[in-house]
């Protein structure tokens, strides 16, 4: 059937070929371009018509072959594109995995110094690992925290008002947090408990900025979810760090991986005590230490020098001593993990809370 159709098409081309040629000539050159004085013998003889038709047929065959070749080329190009896309996707995946290797290696190195976590909490927003700390001279807990989202950590006020105070357990329960620790120091006045010095909540200063004096420092989180802290003489210096929240206490233990001088007063008063410390690693993971002690008379718990060395040896870069003694508290999954030295949790004005 295909052969017959081809023969019929060629027949019509043979029949109409001369007429088409004449029309084309007239269009291009105009009727005046024909030399009518030429003798009939000077035009192509009738015997040349089959040859001309054959040439046209050959050209059609060539065009068909070229079309088939083009289609094959397009298919090859499409296949090559798909292969290239698949290869690029594999390269991107491999690159992403390779990029994560240094982070994974670093995390294994710092985790090795903590031991094996006895509890892990994992979500899209946060990862928390709990460890026991017992070097022989004191006992306590370490909580390593990776914030996957800036809103996975917040600071709250006791009873949500300035001058209010509540236990860390109560704060965790009220705000639906998965974990919490006590935060900055405080001063009592008129039956109320107020945060000490510069305190920020939701990016605002609660009682205004107070320049650092004596050994006080400010510690908190930036709006991007990074631990920030230090001594600030001017508000503009603190504002440059884009703080979201934070509280104040004494003293700083580590700054940029270097041990800082611990004021003599804080080396001996008290010598040992329950402690709460917060710090960060190079990869911005947080480390919280909560150390137990029987009381605040200096006979049990840890010294700040001991904790400073412990944190330094674990690779912590910046570390800040939070309120301790009876204020030290660690709550995870609705349970008080440490043993408060007062025999029960102390109501305090500020808490650092962690959310799933």
Describe the structure.
A hairpin with a 6-residue loop joins strand 2 (126-133) and strand 3 (140-147). The chain contains 6 helices and 20 strands. It has helices at 2-29, 49-114, 168-175, 235-239, 264-268, 304-313; strands spanning 119-122, 126-133, 140-147, 153-157, 179-182, 186-189, 192-195, 200-201, 204-205, 217-222, 227-230, 243-249, 252-255, 258-259, 275-280, 286-291, 318-322, 330-332, 335-336, 350-354. Helix 1 (2-29) crosses helix 2. The chain has 2 domains: 2-84, no CATH class; 115-354, no CATH class. It is α+β, with helices and mostly antiparallel strands and 356 residues long. The model is unreliable at 5-15 and 28-36 (pLDDT under 50).
Strand order of the largest sheet: 1-2-3-16-15-17-13-14
Structural class: alpha+beta
Shape: elongated
Mean pLDDT: 86
By DSSP, the count of extended strands is 20
The CA-CA distance between the termini, in Å, is 74 Å
Low-confidence regions: 5-15, 28-36
Our Rg estimate from Cα atoms comes to 41 Å
Helix and strand layout, with pairings?
Blueprint: H1 2-29, H2 49-114, E1 119-122, E2 126-133, E3 140-147, E4 153-157, H3 168-175, E5 179-182, E6 186-189, E7 192-195, E8 200-201, E9 204-205, E10 217-222, E11 227-230, H4 235-239, E12 243-249, E13 252-255, E14 258-259, H5 264-268, E15 275-280, E16 286-291, H6 304-313, E17 318-322, E18 330-332, E19 335-336, E20 350-354
Antiparallel strand pairs: 1-2, 2-3, 3-16, 4-20, 5-18, 5-20, 6-7, 8-9, 10-11, 10-12, 13-14, 13-17, 15-16, 15-17, 18-19
Helix pairs in contact: 1-2
InterPro entries: NAGPA
Pfam families: NAGPA (PF09992)
GO molecular function, one term: hydrolase activity, acting on glycosyl bonds
